[in-house]
Design brief:
With about 550 residues, the protein is of the alpha+beta class. The protein contains 18 helices and 17 strands. A three-stranded antiparallel beta sheet has the order 5-8-9. The chain starts with a strand and ends in a 28-residue tail after the last helix.
């Protein structure tokens, strides 16, 4: 029986099924790098695009800014095929189901779509899963951008920007002006028939931690919108320019730190519970680096913009050197740490952070392949967290924080340790798990973060979009294809769980919400990006040739 292609309205209704041939066009792996640069027909009106330029090449003049509050018009574009594809293909049934589920998650504010809820699982208490989370919306936004529906992304950017301007207090303490909310929800007053937005800046979150990553994701998404649509007028708005400056001023302010990395509390990012990531977690440092690079492309070159751009350029230089030098681990570097001397007091010290070689965990010697490497979880005085964190390493590749050699080494590691990092359901959020006495001390006996569950070695389908983007950028689409096929075999049948448990990710998470929106959107983005690799440009930055590392460390790919 021939497969069916269906058009779906934005409300999820199906129309006009058409039968097509079973001959599905396949893209050879060797063609992927060529496809990245192929021209893409765009169906919406464009202004001039930002170019990927270095700081010295940024234009000193930008077009005037105008704010136009567009009304939302439901699209009748096919939701099942990426509109920019030149290939006729029959969508996988899971792909069809995913688009329908994503549209059901849309949140409307005064008749305009402004985001997607975290999950629609009526079998569990809502808690805050009925809210629009800034970090959770990113894959949904990318899916809509790839499908030629940018209006919802624009609405989201402007609404969250408006929330940033609110006065933010936790107990009696006032938060920084640039802090972005973790989430928001639409409150409907039935008496006045009036809708308002209610934001959470961490004052209601478990643990009362303000999200550090929200502001970075906001800047990254603004650049993705600009890159996808070619419309620079949104980023050029005074409100958006001010929003970026406020976020960056929080991160670039001078303090007591001797490192260019950002000092953070536990639970300030995707891992939003106590998991021992306090200090300088790789996820925050990679997102910080990417947000700084995106901001350089978006900031106007007026007096304020130029001064900030200079500070950004200096921080990028120091941050890339620090991360590539001290967070990178491969077989040679592991052997060097194993042989470290301690208590060195001089400018020529090799063991600069006074890490004790006996603190090396036993598992890392077996985990490290002879060819491969990764950015470890955390580096601070006398402490190195050797755990693998997926999000931080993938963002390091996409932002070009990782050198081309390091990016290839990360891919080598994933291939070599497929069973540990992917297993039967992509993708481990971190590896390995904490258990026993270590689990009790680090997590505080957290019953949700038991071994191989949730943030403690659980498998999160949302991460597949980041893996796919990293695979395409490094010329390894076959890795992404293999992971997507694994996800397709279960995700829809299992009703799109938030996460999976177990060493191989075989079991639906014990407290996982069903119909988790970013699990749905993450799969869609991965699928569309693999089918049309040119989409990678909205979420990837090429290496800045003017930013050269001061020191070349050991690289596994040179072995």
């Amino acid at each position: 029986m021939s497969p069916v292609i269906m058009d779906v309205y934005s409300n999820g209704n199906v129309k006009n099924p058409e039968r097509v041939s079973n001959n599905i066009v396949q893209i050879d792996d060797s063609d992927f790098l060529r496809l990245l640069d192929r021209p893409r027909p765009i169906s919406i009106e464009r202004n001039r695009s930002f170019e990927e330029k270095s700081i010295n090449e940024l234009s000193s003049t930008l077009s005037p800014l105008h704010f136009v509050d567009h009304t939302f018009s439901p699209s009748v574009r096919s939701s099942l095929n990426t509109p920019r594809s030149n290939h006729c293909f029959a969508p996988h049934p899971v792909f069809t189901d995913a688009w329908l589920a994503l549209r059901r998650s849309l949140v409307y504010f005064r008749r305009q779509p402004v985001g997607t809820v975290a999950a629609i699982d009526h079998s569990s208490d809502e808690l805050n899963y009925d809210q629009v989370f800034l970090r959770d919306f990113v894959p949904s936004a990318l899916a809509f951008l790839m499908n030629g529906e940018p209006e919802i992304v624009k609405n989201f950017i402007l609404k969250t920007l408006r929330l940033q301007s609110w006065e933010k207090k936790v107990d009696q303490f006032k938060l920084g002006e640039g802090v972005m909310p973790a989430s928001f929800k639409v409150f409907h007053d039935p008496v006045r028939n009036y809708e308002t937005l209610i934001a959470d800046f961490g004052e209601s979150a478990i643990g009362r931690v303000t999200p550090v990553d929200s502001g970075f994701w906001w800047i990254i998404l603004l650049r993705a919108y600009t890159k996808s649509t070619g419309d620079s007028s949104l980023a050029e708005m005074p409100e958006c320019q001010r929003g970026m400056r406020l976020i960056l001023s929080l991160c670039l302010s001078e303090g007591f730190d001797t490192f260019p990395t950002l000092l953070c509390a536990d639970g300030c990012c995707m891992i939003d519970r106590r998991m021992g990531v306090y200090g300088y977690p790789i996820e925050i440092q990679a997102l910080f680096f990417m947000a700084l690079r995106c901001a350089l492309l978006l900031l106007k070159q007026d007096d304020e913009g130029k001064e900030l751009a200079e500070r950004i350029a200096k921080r990028l230089h120091a941050l890339s050197y620090h991360m590539q030098s001290y967070f990178w681990l491969d077989m040679k570097q592991l052997n060097d740490i194993y042989r470290y001397k301690t208590e060195e007091y001089s400018h020529t010290a090799v063991n600069k952070f006074n890490v004790m070689p006996d603190s090396l965990p036993d598992w890392v010697f077996d985990f490290m392949p002879s060819r491969g490497g990764y950015f470890i979880g955390n580096v601070s005085p006398a402490k190195m967290d050797f755990r693998w964190f997926c999000l931080g390493n993938c963002v390091a590749i996409l932002s070009s924080l990782a050198t081309p050699e390091q990016s290839s080494a990360i891919m080598d590691l994933i291939e070599s340790r497929w069973e540990e990092l992917v297993g039967e359901m992509p993708l481990k959020i971190c590896y390995p798990t904490l258990e026993g006495h270590e689990w009790r001390i680090v997590t505080g006996c957290d019953p949700k973060n038991t071994r191989w569950s949730y943030h403690n070695g659980g498998s999160w389908p949302v991460l597949i979009w980041l893996l796919t983007a990293a695979c395409i950028k490094t010329g390894r689409p076959q890795i992404a294809r293999r992971a997507i096929e694994l996800a397709e075999s279960r995700l829809s049948k299992d009703n799109w769980p938030e996460y999976y448990d177990g060493k191989l990710g075989r079991f639906i998470g014990k407290q996982a919400r069903k119909f988790q929106t970013w699990s749905i959107a993450g799969y869609l983005v991965a699928k569309m990006m693999l089918e049309d690799p040119s989409h990678l440009g909205m979420i990837s930055l090429e290496e800045d040739k003017q930013r050269k590392p001061l020191l070349k460390r050991s690289l596994s790919c040179s072995h």
